[in-house]
Amino acid sequence: MRQIKIYDTTLRDGSQAEDISFTVEDKIRIAHKLDELGVHYVEGGWPGSNPKDIEFFNKVRHSRFQHTRIVAFGATRHPEKTVETDENLQQLLRAETEAITIFGKSWDMHVREALSTSLDENLRMTSESISFLKKHVPEVLFDAEHFFDGYKQNPEYALQVVDAAAEAGADWIVLCDTNGGSLPSEIESIFSTVRGRVKIPLGIHTHNDSELAVANALAAVTAGAGQVQGTINGFGERCGNANLISIIANLKLKMQLGCVTEGQLKLLKDVSAFVDELANKAHWNHQPYVGKSSFAHKGGVHVSAIQKNRETYEHIDPEIVGNHRRILISDLSGKSNILFKAREYGLNIDDNDPKVRKTLETLKTSESLGYQYEGAEGSFELLMREAMGQKEIFFDFLGWRVIVEKRRGDEQPITEATVKIRVNGVQEVTAAEGTGPVNALDRAIKQALVKHYPELEKVNLFDYKVRILDENKGTRARIRVLIESGDHHAKWGTVGVSENIIEASWQALIDSIEYKLNARPDDAPDPEG
Fold first, then answer.
1. Alpha-carbon distance 93 to 18, whole Å?
2. Exposure of 113 by Cβ count < 10 A (0-12 exposed, 13-18 middle, 19+ buried)?
3. Which helix (DSSP H) or strand (DSSP E) does residue 112 occupy?
4. CA–CA separation, 508 vs 501, rounded Å?
5. Mind listing the pLDDT tens digit for each residue in 354-369?
6. DSSP string spanning 354-387?
7. Which of 33, 37, 39, 58 is the most exposed place for a label (fewest CB within 10 A)?
8. How confident is the model at residue 303 (pLDDT cuts 50, 70, 90)?
9. Among 167-171, 253-257, 390-394, whose mean pLDDT is lowest?
10. In this predicted model, what pLDDT tens digit does every residue of 79-120 receive, in sequence order?
């Protein structure tokens, strides 16, 4: 089986994306996570560009990696300088990595206008820099920056740059679609030409400005590329880099090429979410292969077919990449959706039980009123349990009151909530202050119940979303509140709908508590709930 090397540049190219900044410790943790995934090269940064990257290389050299080779990144020597006096090259050597990647210009326009030097000097910069580094490190990679644009404008010179790198002893030459403007057909054709010209291994580096980075990378592999560069989740400057999550899955599952093991492939979803978390980015639900919605089914016809044969509406088994199938509940649902969810929740029900039809009717009526259960499966499970007579009652609601007071214009509002609940025949009346009505209600409910149900102490509210349902009614419109709650085991979503935002929030909060109390110890909530 043909093997493709995976080269990750999340820590360098990916961190150039707007709104992304990794700490040194973040970068080290990500490097180890990529090692678990089986990534062959991890580009740690440019040690000559900033103190953070210098610190990273100083720390990471004490780490051990099983699969990954850490790479330092930099540029060819500066025009008119020697390799011995170029500080950038010296910093690369001080990083003490086993591999170094340097980039050089392969587009004549860039040489003249960006570097302000001659075409011959640029060739010398490429050749001398690679020769110098090869004397000190085992592996040197050359990124031919802007290669495809340069080839289209001046193919003779672009190829001269490649020849110079090859003759100087580069271990890899990586052809870069730096502006992300090429088409897959162009990439494959040009890459094939270079492949027939040089004997050393070639790699591909693509950007996503035309939303073709993954397709372009795979086109280059078809033309003979032995290495693919990219970033986790496609992070990168402007529109991003090629998404290695999709590339790895496509190489392994669609092209039957070696890159990671089957066991490592199952880590794809985990690695994707891990990097998003450290980047402080919400995970993209619709991301191919690893997104929450990648294998989610909503229409009743789809769900019925899926239960008979997965291949009817899924291009792969989601478990292969660490994902899982989700059956969504909405007004498009059919009997198959209800039965699937009942079995998922561990509820015993017969296909012909009239409660299935009743649940479906209740669901569609609720959604016509504005309820939505796609992101609130905790509330839907409670609806099902109640319809089937399997919902346990842990407390009775008696009433609540919320007071919001602002005494002076320069002071923050004061919010206090009082709730009245009966638990096991005992009436509990508690009051709590909060930063707002929802927070105050949440704290008051917990105070009333936690003495009876200590497990609620660890339940927290993670997310709170408000949607106006009747835009033409202004402040009299119905409001839908979606709440995400969770503890150290899992997360779950609940929903409330009312013309009063506090009432809608109360409904969602109470559902969150009831869901937690109804969940059996062996019935762990769906972590994606």
1. 29
2. exposed
3. helix 108-113
4. 11
5. 767 777 677 667 767 7
6. HHHHHHHHHHHHHHHTT---TT-HHHHHHHHHHH
7. 58
8. low
9. 390-394
10. 989 999 999 999 999 999 999 999 999 999 999 999 999 999
In angstroms, the CA 269 to CA 457 distance is 30
- The answer to whether 459 and 442 are in contact (CB under 8 A) is no
256 three-state secondary structure: coil
Radius of gyration for the chain, computed over Cα atoms and rounded to the nearest angstrom? 29
Residue with tokens 């020769």: 131
* Whether 138 contacts 115, CB under 8 Å: no
What values do phi and psi take at 528, rounded to 5?
Answer: -95, -5
Q: Which residues contact 475 (CB under 8 A, 6 or more apart)?
A: none
Q: What are the structural domains, with CATH classification, of the chain? A: 5-260 (3.20.20.70), 352-389+458-529 (3.30.160.340), 395-452 (3.30.160)
Q: Which two tokens stand for residue 381?
A: 């499970």
State the SS3 of 419-456. EEEEECCEEEEEEEEECCHHHHHHHHHHHHHCCCCHHH
- Stated pTM of the model: 0.71
pLDDT in tens, 478-496: 888 988 888 887 888 899 9
274 alpha carbon, distance to own chain's centre: 7
Q: Helix, strand, coil shares of the chain as percentages rounded to 5?
A: 40, 20, 35
Give the number of other CB atoms < 10 A from CB of residue 121. Answer: 13
